[in-house]
């Protein structure tokens, strides 16, 4: 319990990093004092066919309008590929690591150029024009990145749908963006199991006759259904067209992609991102947050179906001319050492993953980590949920051997890129805190009436001014955009997250504001109670929700997953209650603890507390939108063993 609570920047890291403390302070101050000048300078980090003369034209009032670099003309694929050819044509752009450890590949920038050019020509041959939408439903294979870049090259708008989604969810998303073309694969491969992607597309398209072309990558060679005229093999199509394809001239505010949020808090929203500002922001955050340097091998374990995969597997790294690793498999296949083995195999320097993966691997103990070297690692990152301090310390001490700074990056599908994060050479870390804002980002904490709270405080997290990577609208529903993000607190972007700011100005995300528990008038964030439970040596994972309580208004209901081999006894239940009282205080005492063999999570691995809240309140008939739930079986198990709250 006496682990350090502050990890200062070491002199070594500060000396070699792009940004040290003094530079961070100066640049941050300038970015707020004169955003026009700041972004005019940093907007030049990408190549423009026609340079912008206007920088920022944004308003969070009224109808809400967000435009960056609006008269500039560029192309995202050109910036991610063509401009690197002269200097790094033979450098590896993508390292692909297959599900099966014996399969991997290196794709150079020159090869990437050829693959993307051909696919762009295929799309054109299938009638795809600038502004048309293309759905990408793919496994984690290089063709997924080619597909995104091919769309960007011709100005088509991609909508990537995570390959784990069901035919129904896929149909909704194709329908939502009115796409006419789908790019998919025969089957995916994850953890040795086949995923029937083409069969799912066939089902989804039963009621969507307007989809005219399905382009299918042969990944496994398994048998698939075929509709002549509509379905085409990828390898046959790319062989028919030339590789030469001139990157189209795309306006800075032309759409780049539509992507749905994870669905943790309700029905997913179709987030629209545009071209220039998004790319500037993704590339700049990738360079500074991960302190990316020439020659680094960089690995983000997300799926391209999530925004993390968009900004930090594909667009940010490639815009920077980096080598980005793309992993087809899962953390525990063939063994629970897989992540660390991949790091050793490809000499990964920068590693970016999610708390859910860290907690799962932590359950397996240190040995599977320690039997690998990981000597190449220099920096670790986390994203997706608040990282419990216990998991942070394990990541730092065991995975990073105490040597690597951790960047706990807070951001959202809506924000396009990272907003609150340590910069490794500038900002010392506190386990569990996302620390300080990135350049140009002005966070504000407000109470429920919208009053701005100063100093050390806690409340609702808002951002008061625009940054270039911000979403522009909800696709096809601008009113929903204004309502969802700008109406709760007038004139501010409301994140939906609760947040605490400490005496040092560090930000701590306390969870979704919808999840805040009000016990006898005290507002408690879920993250803190969960972290206290996870800090107990026998607990692997925990989720905490409120439920109606006669005396307190709300009681605290905790779902607890134990470490492998631990017995769920009444004695342990009492021990955990005492433990939380001691860690946080009597106000946070759990009223009920239910043993949970598994927790309901989104397919991106986030705990869905809104479903746990329904189970706790005995309202399991009305669970809400469950289409993004990874494993529905977990929910029925929990309903079956729900605690009787008398
Ligand atoms: P939906 O918006 O559909 O409910 P979602 O919010 O889970 O789903 P994402 O955009 O994938 O969809 O996730 C963004 C959210 O993830 C943030 O609002 C925050 O709650 C959480 N999050 C992401 N990174 C961090 C982090 N480093 N620390 C704490 N929370 C994080
Ligand atoms: Mg959200």
Description:
- The structure is a single chain.
- This protein is α/β, with parallel strands linked by helices.
- 31% of the residues lie in helices and 22% in strands.
- The protein is built from 21 helices and 31 strands.
- α7 links the parallel β6 and β7.
- The chain binds adenosine-5'-triphosphate and magnesium ion (MG).
- The site of magnesium ion (MG) has 4 residues, from loops.
Radius of gyration (Å): 24 Å
Low-pLDDT segments, ≥5 res: none
Strand order of the largest sheet: 12-11-8-6-7-14-15-24
What is the straight-line distance between the termini? 36 Å
Ligand kinds = adenosine-5'-triphosphate, magnesium ion
Please indicate the percent range of residues in DSSP E strands (runs of 2 or more): 15-25%
Q: Outline the biggest β-sheet.
A: 8 strands, mixed
Give the overall shape, derived from the CA principal axes.
globular
Briefly note the structural class of the backbone: alpha/beta
Name the average pLDDT.
Answer: 96
The number of helices is 21
- Helical amount among residues, as a percent range? 25-40%
Task: Describe how the helices and strands are arranged.
Layout (H helix, E strand, L loop, with lengths): L10 H6 L4 H13 L1 H8 L13 E4 L5 E4 L4 E2 L1 H5 L4 H4 L3 E6 L6 E5 H17 L7 E5 L4 H13 L2 E4 L6 H11 L3 E5 L2 E3 L2 E3 L1 H9 L7 E5 L13 E3 H7 L9 E2 L3 E6 L9 E5 L1 H14 L7 E4 L6 H13 L3 E5 L10 H9 L3 E4 L1 H8 L4 H4 L8 E4 L6 H11 L6 E3 L34 E4 L5 E2 L3 E7 L9 E2 L3 H9 L6 E9 L5 E6 L4 E3 L2 E3 L1 H9 L4 E11 L3 E10 L7 H14 L8 E4 L13 H8 L15 H9 L6
Parallel strand pairs: 4-17, 6-7, 6-8, 7-14, 8-11, 11-12, 16-17, 16-18, 18-19, 19-20, 30-31
Antiparallel strand pairs: 1-2, 3-13, 4-5, 9-10, 14-15, 15-24, 21-22, 21-23, 23-25, 25-26, 27-28, 29-30
Bound molecules: adenosine-5'-triphosphate and magnesium ion (MG).
The site of magnesium ion (MG) has 4 residues, from loops.
